[in-house]
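User: I'm preparing a small set of examples for a lab meeting where we compare how different chains pack in three dimensions. I only have the primary sequence for this one, and I'd like the structure in token form so I can line it up with the others. Please keep the answer compact; I'll paste it straight into my notes.
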Amino acid sequence: MEFPKFLLGDNTDYPTAIFVVHTEFPRFIINLENDEVEWLEEFSKEDEKELEDEAENLIEAATAFYDREVSRYED
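Assistant: Understood. Below is the structure token output for the 75-residue chain.
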């Protein structure tokens, strides 16, 4: 089964949270309410340097995905 690159997540235990799940490597969940990121991968020291370079781009892409999805509901 193929998944989209990003998914929106919701949970009634966290009523104000806005979760975006990144399904490709490096997998993570970001809560856009507070920008908290939970990585779903374990990284080697070599990976950590690459991750530092890529993390900002991935988080910006997750935020843009959410903004795009919300704008589709507002129209």
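A couple of notes for your slides: The two ends are 31 Å apart (CA to CA). The beta strands are 6-9, 19-22, 28-31, 36-39.

User: Perfect, thanks.
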